[in-house]
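Deliverable D5.2: sample structural annotation.
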Amino acid sequence: MLIQWYPGHPTGTVARHLTTLAALISGIVGSKSTQLPSVATKIPDGTKPESRVKRLTRWLDNAHILEEVYFVPYVDILLTQLALETLVVVMDGSVVGRGCMALMLHVVYKGRALPLAWRVRQSPKGHCPEALHIAMVALLSTLIPEGAKVVFLGDGEFDGTALQDTLSELGWSYVCRTAMSTTATWEGETFRLDVLGACLQPGRLIDFKEGIWSAIWQQPRRRVVGITSDSASRPFSQTRKAEVSICISRIYQTHSVFLGYS
């Protein structure tokens, strides 16, 4: 199916890499693991498991396996279809692998968070800088079909005013959680949000026209299953520390293609 849906008719190296990607997807799903020895046992290609591990390792280590070639073409097809309705985009940061952080942007479809863009970096727990949030949104905006309606969702990490400026310039709607102690200005009056909230019913939309942002007071959170609840978040015990962020990124790419067509 990967070759069938790929633009044009891939041949040569691209076709071989797509075949390996399909094998990796099959092995991860069948083994429910990202450990290559386990994945290799679920790839029915007639070769020895040791040979399959070497094949998958070469694919993961190959610098020519680029998202632009092996992931973006499928994202274009997916977003073209989903953009017939409002796209709900969620940004989230998670601890993954061995000492790595993944900042991800997903599109929500039937309660599932399908990864669209990500950055994996070696970093301790904590929030990513706002500049990285903005760079991720700018990257995703190049993949969104023209004229599509987009709603951006995020937790308290993503309530920065510079990010809100970026979202407004793109014409995206957005809802982000923020601290109760956050101050806002409305018609010349400055106040804390918890003071305003005491006078409102849950779900009430507050539109700060003089600011540049809106908020839904105490809007109930929806449960969305993300990729880090799947096998991509399991340890990479056989991967060298210097390479783990690259391997996690490749595994995200593999999962994303699978989820987009499952």
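Annotation notes: The longest helix spans residues 12-31. The chain has two domains: 2-75+240-261, 85-216.
The annotation will be released with the project's public dataset once the embargo ends.
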